[in-house]
Amino acid sequence: MLLSSCKKDFSKITASDWNPNVVAPFIQTELTLRNLMGVDSSLQIGDDSLMVFYYQRDSILNITADNLVEIPDTVTSYYEFSLGDLTIGDIMQAASVTLNDLLPYVDPAVADTLSANDGNTTIFPPFQLQSPVTVDLSPYEQYETLTFSAGYFDIQITNQLPVTLTNIRFDIMDVVNNSVVQSVVLEQLFAGEVAHDTVFLKGKTLSNTFSYVIHSVESEGSYPDSVLIDLSKGLSLQMNARDMYVVSGVAKIENQIIYSTHEWVNLDFGDARLWEILFAGGELQYQMQSYLNLTLNILLQLSSASVDGVVPENNFDLPANSFYESSWGLANMDIDLTRDTNQPFNRMPIYLELVVQPTVNMVAFDSSDKVKATFVAKEMTAESVNGNLGKHLYLIDEDTLQLDLSFFDNITGQIIFDNPVLTFSYQNGFGVPIVAHTNLYGVNPITGDYLDFGIDSIVFNYPSTEGEVISDSLIFDKNNSNIVDFLAERPDKLIFSGDYQTNWNNDTVNFITRTSLLKANTEIRVPLVFSTTSLVFTDTVDFLNGQADIPVGSGALHLNVDNGLPFDLEISLLVPDSVTGEIIDHVDFDMIKSAVVDAGGNVLSPTQSDVTAVFNQSFIQNMSRANTLQLRAKTVTAEGGSIPVGLYSDYKLSVAISFEAKLQP
């Protein structure tokens, strides 16, 4: 507060000027509340001239997409594909045992009769084999040896002779392994009749060379009927191999699909269960290592993904015992993560088709031979996600807001503000229910006491459409917080901490984008409308030193006030020691009545008052120890502090103090 005054140097009064009574102006000034409150950047003047304390802080809370979706830096998945069962094409071999082939193995007399009547119609004589007959088959050219997991040899025996055959017994032999593949027994086979038998191949290991060993064939002949004897006819033996699956061997392999399946890359998003993700960046690398003696054609497809409407895929050959690697860029790739019915979230399907290419030469193979695949998703960033982020609790780092309440510095006493407001403004682009549990408090700089603001939680509105941003604010005032008591304690800082929780209300549908954020700002607006019974302003008054030798016996200070402030004033003039600052003397004036105010605490008209305070010679002497004076005003708001009043910048206090003294000769 700056006080201007007229100063008179009494040391220059001469004897010719002597007058036992001297009256002179001492202080004359006009103050507005803007002067009284001092210069403070946090004080603003409203359109109606009401003074308002205003504090704003941006980004008291800033939640980004990275805070809510924890995308792992690297996800690696390993797979092994065994060769498994291969198919072998159908094979057919036929052999015939003619009557001429059997002649050496029957009774010579019978053999002679048959030879003599070849081509004639006559009685066919009875006969039987006297020793086994072996019929060799040509080796199969498709393989050398096979171990079967499934398959059949269908055997067809046809009697081409004109007589009934009985007691037919023969073995199908694996020549290389010298083992019986199947024994066939037929009690009777009529002329022209066809008989069938089946060999089950499961579990058998066979070479490619077979023979028939006929142990027994008999016939009673045709008596009394005459039949055509044809030595080129006999038994027709045919073996058809079908539906064969093999697990190992040496063979020529046909073109065939050995795998047509989906594998799953599990994307671990913590508690989040994502249904769809649009990537902003990243890479999916894949490697294929063959331990087969076969060339594979491989189709890889991200079957639930698309980039600009195109499904990413790669078709390539993987030669025998070789290595292949490549990658897909994930930028702009949209992937459906719900295709796995067992886990319809966080699972990226990869379709694989492994096709064995046909071989020209024989190759060794085994069903346990493998192809190993590795998929590595790395440096993934999301443009947007849909799903459920889960109920997850995140801590809010403690933040300190330094409150600029410097306009209080020259004011003591209690102030009860009538309508202070803290506004919590925010913008929210997350389609996620979020509640913040806040710990908002201040600290009294003198006592160190913690002052609770009284805000327990903040529930944020959120958009219902991707790309939408909700702008909203929450108002905390005397009705829903402790802001009045909080400011009454004059904290120098506001400390904000706590946590926030997603999906606190069990919402199941969430969406966020890479640019989504929840950003909250805070502002405190305190209109200087308050009530008080003990508010004290103190300011410094400059004056002319050097009056210690003035011959003053006693005197008085006459105070004339035109009070346009809504306060009753008790004014004192204080004399501080220039060295210690200690108040060494003072002059007190009687109560100055406040301006006339209406029921709302607004000034209607100023009140004029005249008061006088006396002093003695020691007061003048004590002023010699001071280089400034202090003017202290203790205020009570109108009606004894019962009416809240507003401080308007154009409110004025006009003060005139005159100096009257009796001079001693």
Written account of the structure:
- The protein has 4 domains: 10-50 and 532-663, Jelly Rolls (Sandwich), CATH 2.60.120; 53-69 and 391-527, Jelly Rolls; 74-86 and 254-388, Jelly Rolls, CATH 2.60.120; 90-249.
- Strands 4, 19, 21, 23, 24, 27 and 37 form a 7-stranded antiparallel beta sheet that branches.
- The radius of gyration is 56 Å and the shape is rod-shaped.
- The model is unreliable at 1-19 (pLDDT under 50).
- With 665 residues, it is mainly β.
- Helices cover 6% and strands 56% of the residues.
How many domains? The number is 4
Low-confidence stretches: 1-19
Radius of gyration: 56 Å
Round the mean pLDDT to the nearest integer and report it: 85
Q: Please state the structural category.
A: mainly beta
Q: Which CATH-level-2 architecture of the largest domain?
A: Sandwich
CATH topology of the largest domain: Jelly Rolls
The proportion of strand residues reads over 45%
Overall geometry = rod-shaped
Largest sheet: 7 strands, antiparallel
Separation of the first and last Cα atoms: 37 Å
Tally of helical runs: 7
At the first level of CATH, what is the class of the largest domain? Mainly Beta
Helix content: under 10%
Total beta-strand segments: 49
Salient structural properties:
single chain; 665 residues; mainly beta; Jelly Rolls; 4 domains; seven-stranded antiparallel β-sheet; 7 helices; 49 strands; 6% helix; rod-shaped; disordered N terminus
